[in-house]
Amino acid sequence: MKKLAYFTVIGALTLGANAGSALAQVTTVAIIEWNGPLGYRLRPGAPAVYCAPGDPAEVAKIKINSSLYAPGTMISPEQAKALALCAVPGQLASGEMENHNGRIVYEIDVLPTDKKTYSKVEIDAANGEVINAKQFGGLRGLAGYLRESADRKNNKIPAATTTTTTTTTTTSGGVIEFVGPLGYTLRPGAPAIYCAPGDPAEVARVSVKADLYVPSTMISPEQAKALALCAVPGQLASGEMENHNGRTVYEISVLPTDKKTYSKVEIDAATGEVINAKQFGGLRGLAGFLRESAERNNNKNP
After folding, report:
1. pTM of the complete model beyond 0.70
2. Phi and psi at residue 198, in whole multiples of 5°?
3. 170: number of Cβ within 10 Å
4. Least crowded by CB within 10 Å, which of 237, 254, 295, 300?
């Protein structure tokens, strides 16, 4: 299922005095299409998408070799760096552009957070699709970590040219903050976030048990269902609210698109943070698929 979201980075609106800086130019309005865990497609000409509060500074900190960049037909190096950090949270090390059989790609190396290894992220320069994000292990990973750590130092842009900004992203129907690959944080009281055109109908189709819901301090069941579908595209099956050591969470089961299994998505009821999205495999996944398919029929709204 193609995921579509519209984001406006309002934090950059305070940068009017620095409008000539590269960062100010890439933090105004961003439009992406979501096509799976690694399928961020950034429309050519749209500014960068930042997935964590520290990403803008990190994007501005490291330069990459962009000799093949053609403005107007490709996403910018800043956008590519931001997308690489969305795919692999960590520190940028190096990057370059390559021609893969006529397809121009950014190849960006990232040092993943808290790991002695490195990841190579490949991004289509024409549309921003994250084609691949491969992490290397063993001796190769360690050797790459040492090499890329040195490259990072060589590729740092002088601190005087960096600019930091707080990015709060908004959609036409709500406010969210990105705090990691599964860190959608929906502000209490904001409307639901829909990541695909069919999600509103799907959200309305299936009911979840919401006996612990407190309207004044929590996101609504509808918002939680929408966020679950953002994390795992598919069909809603069932859901309930649980108290996990004082933290109230929504636990929502989703039948992933085109798979005979199920996923359980946990969402913080107070903030909307997607805490976890676990897909079950093997016999447990198949048994869960059959059980949750029946639950979906039972939980359908009239």
Report:
1. no
2. -85, -5
3. 16
4. 300
